[in-house]
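User: Modeling request: complex.
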Amino acid sequence: MMSLKLYGYWRSSATYRVRIALNLKGLEYEYVPVHLVKDGGEQHQAAYDSLNPSHLVPTFVDDDEDIILNQSLSIIEYLDERYPEPYSLMPAHAVERARVRGLAQDIACDIQPLANLRVLQSLSNQYELSSDQTNGWCKHWIEKGFDGIERRLQTQAGRFCFDFDVTMADICLVPQVYNAKRFGVDMTRYPLILRIYDNCQALEAFQQAEPENQPDAQ
Amino acid sequence: MMSLKLYGYWRSSATYRVRIALNLKGLEYEYVPVHLVKDGGEQHQAAYDSLNPSHLVPTFVDDDEDIILNQSLSIIEYLDERYPEPYSLMPAHAVERARVRGLAQDIACDIQPLANLRVLQSLSNQYELSSDQTNGWCKHWIEKGFDGIERRLQTQAGRFCFDFDVTMADICLVPQVYNAKRFGVDMTRYPLILRIYDNCQALEAFQQAEPENQPDAQ
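Assistant: Request completed. Predicted assembly structure:
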């Protein structure tokens, strides 16, 4: 029995982020799929509700320490504080840390929540948007977000978002690029984002976290 | 000339959060209004674009230290690390810190981004939703979010979200309750949230940060 468990969904980009962080830390964990669509969504069922009353993924559990945490960025910072080896995912200086958090939140607050499954379901079911319209909606917010991020990266990027260290910012960027490609965003508009994405994808921790490599991938 | 500047908008709840944090830390700052509606939005003009290429508020500037930061939660954690007095806005223990960040992100990632001005403008301009429909949209996501938060608070709340200390979670909760009231959410459904809101509102730092008390209030 493994003590660390990650409840999530293969294509949830918040779950994808935590998988990358766990892999970068070299932590073994049990991946517990929560199917967000089947039977009206397993995230609404009693078993999951008791872990996460918000009915969102991911949820991180450490059985040995009786810890249940939600919110991907919060989980990633917890993992980084609790398991500092082999290297930190956050810079040592407060201003640089703020920039990493800022970029992570540019994605986790201002892009991803607008284009996730429950929002798209609501737009099509309650407001009768066509699938062309919901795809356009996603593309619009991803492009708006990437326009700002590409410019921010011009002053601070190296091999990764912040110089030559993999940080929480890269952990958020890669799943968002995966989504951008899915929604047909023209990534040639974002050469810096794409270069960092490619540099991350060269690392095994990122490859193994990809949605298509999960047991619940369809 | 004051070194610290906060660029924001009176009714932006992300700006409201940073005002509360600055007040709790007892920091003097210059408040620079960025009108999000007038002339197509001052956030898109060249002067602001050079500070924040995402064209969102708030932006925090420290002229003396040549620091420009965006994203409210990132700014708040920076302020807390840089100015630990008179007390910390984050708990000392990693698990508790993760819970505070998680609750803050329940609001800053899963509620507020869905109901902010640019999203409502897009829903009404591009997708022709009526104002009744956009109000219903806001109410729906606030209620969904508060349903989960009210349950989470049952295991951890005291006078404030986490026991008897004001944390970043309260700083996010209060502006979200302000918005909920604006959109007609029935707050009697959320007795714990309401109690914490009232306890925060008894503090001068929260009162002075209220939208109606800002120079750009309309």
